[in-house]
Specification:
45% helix, tRNA-binding, tRNA processing, Four Helix Bundle (Hemerythrin (Met), subunit A), 2 domains, alpha/beta, TIM Barrel
Length: 340
């Protein structure tokens, strides 16, 4: 596929720890060919202070995942630049610096949203990274930090953009530090989309994306009236079929939209391959449990793929997955007969 990274950013799937690993990303490609996908965040220490086997596991991906961005967490300019060079050698399409994660654990290592309080440090890192790679370097941040008036979004963007970063994906919430969990930080701080819209007005020459609480295609449409791109988070994971219409609607691709059942059947070949490598079935299928969300048989599908499948028995795993497909096919046939 001939990739234009700027076009693919129009709609993207957010980097999510514990979610957007290679198995999920291959599954997402059964639904959208064009939306930009992100890895889970990988820290500079994890990439630099490990053996080749571990590094390969952290960076490896399937070629179908393109367009694909590597999200890196860190603050040391030298370490970040080395990792950016790795990203290019592994043929990623973009490098994204995490300046939005509110986890206390990562902030103790000067990673994530705490860096918004030190825009000069971020700018130094961006400048150094650009010396080591020709890949686009982007930043994902928040609109601010609660109870820290010294953190100003426009000041942050001013300084970091001067260092050569022209793309900012902004989660439209402030971050609460040290008092609530990362999960609560995705829900409790109120959404302030207008702040992100105003950022685009102030910086028309910068590429501004919006993230946070986006759950419908109509919401995506609305946001794109004010900003350059939308990044979909939890909805793309909990309700992945949400992604199935994106190519037609937002990338003007006149392609047939696969049914949920067709998507699962398409993903089967990949599952067979991964199981043959010794991967537990549940490690793969946990990412697809939401594909029949709200559909007849959806709960039984989830139950079948979550109960008693921790065994690495190859044949048994395939039988279980095929049984799940057969069960959903029966539900589909019943729905067709019943005119549903």
């Amino acid at each position: 596929m001939n990739i234009n990274i700027f076009d693919s950013r129009r709609v993207s799937v957010a980097p999510m720890m514990g979610c957007t690993n290679r198995d999920y990303r291959v599954f997402a490609r059964c639904l959208t060919q064009h939306a930009l996908l992100y890895t889970e965040m990988v820290t500079t220490n994890a990439l630099l202070y490990c053996n080749n086997l571990v590094r390969n596991r952290l960076l490896n991906y399937n070629v179908v995942e393109h367009p694909l961005a590597l999200q890196i967490g860190g603050s040391d300019a030298g370490a970040l630049s080395e990792c950016a060079a790795m990203a290019e050698s592994w043929k990623y399409d973009e490098v994204n610096l995490n300046v939005g994660c509110p986890s206390k654990r990562v902030m103790n290592n000067m990673i994530g949203v705490c860096l918004m309080a030190n825009p000069k440090l971020v700018a130094k890192a961006i400048k150094k990274m650009r010396e080591y790679t020709s890949l686009p370097i982007t930043v994902k941040c928040r609109i601010g930090i609660e109870n820290n008036p010294d953190v100003d979004l426009t000041n942050f963007v001013d300084i970091v953009s001067d260092a050569g970063c022209s793309t900012f994906i902004v989660h439209a919430r402030k971050a609460f530090l040290n008092c609530i969990s990362p999960k609560d930080n995705r829900n409790i701080p109120y959404l302030n989309y207008k702040t992100v819209y105003n950022l685009k007005k102030k910086y028309p020459n910068l590429y501004i994306g919006i993230n946070g609480g986006i759950k419908t295609l109509s919401e995506c449409h609305n946001h794109l009236c004010f900003v350059d791109s939308v990044m979909i988070g939890r909805e793309a994971y909990k309700n992945p079929y949400f992604l199935s219409k994106i190519d037609n609607i937002f990338f003007d691709k006149l392609e047939n939209i696969n049914s949920r059942l067709d998507v699962i059947k398409k993903f089967r070949q990949y599952i067979v391959h991964r199981i043959s490598e010794g991967i537990n079935l549940n490690c793969i299928t946990r990412h697809i449990l939401g594909i029949f969300r709200g559909q007849p048989g959806g709960k039984k599908f989830r139950d079948l793929l979550t109960n008693n499948i921790h065994d690495k028995n190859y044949k048994l795993s395939i039988i279980i997955f095929d049984n799940a497909i057969s069960m959903m096919r029966e539900y589909y046939n019943e729905c067709i007969k019943g005119g549903k």
